[in-house]
Amino acid sequence: MSALVDLVTSLSTARRAAQLYPPVHPSYREAMDTMVATVASCTADGTGFVLNIHEGRLYAGSQVISSDAPAVASLAKSMESHRVESLAFDPAFAAPDALALAEVLNLRASASLSIEEELAARGVTAIAVGVLADDDHAQRAEREERREQDRALYRQLVAALRVVQRDVAATGSPNLDQAEQMVGGIMSRLLEDDAAILGMASLNAHSEGALFHSINVMIYALTLGLGLGLSEDGLTCLGIAALLHDVGKSAFDLDDPEQAQAAEALHPKLGAEVLARLEDEDPATMLVAFEHHMGMDGSGWPDRAPDYITHPYSRMVAIANRYENLTKRGDTGSALTPDRGIQQLIREAGRTLDPTLTRLFIKSLGVFPVGCVVRLSDQSVGVVCATTAELLAPRARLLFDEHGTELEDPVDIDLTEDPRTILEVVDPEALDLLVADHL
Ligand SMILES: [Fe+2]
Ligand SMILES: [Fe+2]
Q1: Cys bridge to 10: 35, 196, 229, 362, which one at CB 3.0-4.6 A?
Q2: Which residues contact 333 (CB under 8 A, 6 or more apart)?
């Protein structure tokens, strides 16, 4: 086992040397020689051996190489990012092979780069490369399938909410059973894969903007609720309240400018009245409808006493509602990009918005929220697909390479580990990109 760790460590040293020194430098020669010597000791019985990777762990044959040596984790990561499943070393392994391997593993991983071809181009015959390509393909197919299922869930929720709106307009007393069931579905998917659900919150439809708005506000409110550590019951209540926050608008024809104006002023009170009639509903649902336009500084509406205190869920929905309105692409196309939306929330925190909850919302979404299209320092472009512990370094799915060519197979990178940084946020419309299609 220690010979294997030595080999992996020597490969890591050789890679570093290849980055730091010219080939004539003594440190460089020494690193390559050490690597040749360790491969020689591992292949001393004349049979060669295989380094392979499975679920992020490095194996020699079927034996896991368990070591705290950073070189082991680093090689595993490098093999994964280059879609290399295995490296088989032949006893004929010599210094030029060591040099080529160190060089090739240092190349930046991309969908168009093949380690196998790069080694062959350098005349290497003593290393055979096994490729992970099929796994990638299966993963992508699975992701596509999940995306379709999530979209179907979203469409079902739009349909359920449409029925609620019709009920309100017709009888003033909606049946919420179906919508509540759907909220449960979205919530469990949010727990499984928040990026996929947050990605859908960038969906918009001009014809049914109000329905999409309500669902997106619910997704953002639930994300905040999760960040706050609310119980499942609490999340369900918050989700329903967020979904129905604008239910008071249902009685109005929002295409008529006069009615739309009246709806804006009256919907908190009307919505609260509708929801107060429902016996089984948590009173918080009614309060959120009534209070979601009330600013913390006494601004907003409806009018209230100076010492009036709003429900915490109302403050959460107010933040989600504000963010959705800021980033939603309206008919004029004048939406803020997600990062600008976040910056605007920071400005409003402590004035109209609850500062603690706004901070938590930003922590949950990240400074570059999921769905943000970003240009990286090498000019490649990707979409943020997950947040990480570092606010400024999320995970990104690369869609265009550094020359602006669209990648056939998008590559996911973790910016906490990748040397590239985010240069700027790009308007997806400028690239003719529908963000939700790539999450
Ligand atoms: Fe509203
Ligand atoms: Fe709203």
Answers
A1: 35
A2: 429
